[in-house]
Design a protein that fits this description.
7-stranded mixed sheet, single chain, 14 helices, alpha/beta, 2 domains
Length: 469
Amino acid sequence: MATLKETAEIAKRIIFLEKELPPLPMNRNAMNLIQDTTAFKGSSFNALVILALQTFCGLLAHPIQAQPISASTTQAKPSNIVASNNQPMPAIEVGANNVNAYLPLLKNKRVGIVANPTSTIGKTHLIDTLKALGVNITGVFTPEHGFRGDAENGAHINNDIDPKTGLKIISLYGKHVKPTAEDLKLMDVVVFDIQDVGTRFYTYLTTLHYVMQACADHNKALIVLDRPNPNGFYVDGPVLQLSLKSMVGVHPIPIVHGMTLGELAKMINGEGWLKDSLSPKRKACKLTVVACKNYTHNRIFPLPVPPSPNLPTQNAIYLYPTLCLLEGTIVSMGRGTDKPFECFGAPWLKQGTYTFVPKAIQGKSLNPPYLGDTCHGVLLTNFASEFIISYKHIYIEWLFMLYQECPDKSKFFNPFFDKLAGTPQLKQQIIQGLKPSEIRDSWQLGITQFMQVRKPYLLYPYDPNIGLN
């Protein structure tokens, strides 16, 4: 954590650079970020933000860096990241678009669908497309946030009837996370088509796991229509300790795993992760993955439909792997505002120039942290687009800053933090004051082992040196 002396030294270096070098290669958005954080002058936060921005611009001699992932743990460099003739790359097509690949598998079958608002072919919902093609859909399962995506985080979802199609909607969230024999009795095959955002604690992955278990238990075929991972260009974070298994973490993978749900489904099957104490001999499910076309893990994929109510923008999705950890603290990450997961703050964080007042918002957050209170903090929208996507790491520096700024550190963490982190170590490392680089070093063995294990299951090329393009 930067001291006041170190902060002063950084400020001196910035002043020197401004005098000796041409203007910084920043656009107005990046400059606004500096202006919006000047109220933290003299604090550890200002040092961290300025350091991050200068690192991004390549101006500091010693930027914060994590231990690099060995090239031997990744696939060979993809050849189709940039077309040799400098022509634009062909458009990415999600698995659902390739109807000819899976429609024959649905012929004369009773079909269940796991879907939400992201389950689209173009602008048409998958269910509407399949019904128009004569597919016999006998039921729909829906994950957290509901079939229409209008339920807030953690809200109880009731079974329902979709008014447009008349189909029965079965919730897979709350106490009923796994389809039962009764749920599946009128289904021969289940189709899973949901957009993920690439973190272990995003619950759509957990839903996929329990659907796979149910299909294995009841001898049902499962077809996963794959979709790109918008955070698929890097891998970071501690690997889950299975003693902390929960709805926000089921598998021994890092927080940011860099895989699509189709790839993860293959890995869950192949590694025997469907087995548990109740069914130690459970076999793999009958799985078919319909892959995306023209996708690599290094290609940008702007999501056409928000994956959940509180991830309404691409910047929020890029910030989510970091800011979701704040759900395990007494810091707000903007729930109850028009910038969820694009800001953070708290009433006790007095120095922030960005202020917000969380309100109850139907379908997004009815009881957000600090409801009705004025929170001081920082708007991170520009920081996401200017820095986070190039940094390729969880930005744990914010956790350090916020913990140090908190007036009552004994109340900073809540019990949910360890489940989100997947380990009790991260909390202890922050309390002990370990440097971010030291914490990242502690993750590297787990990440390296994970990268080796995942290699056979990757469907798309990946180059850790490229980032997004």
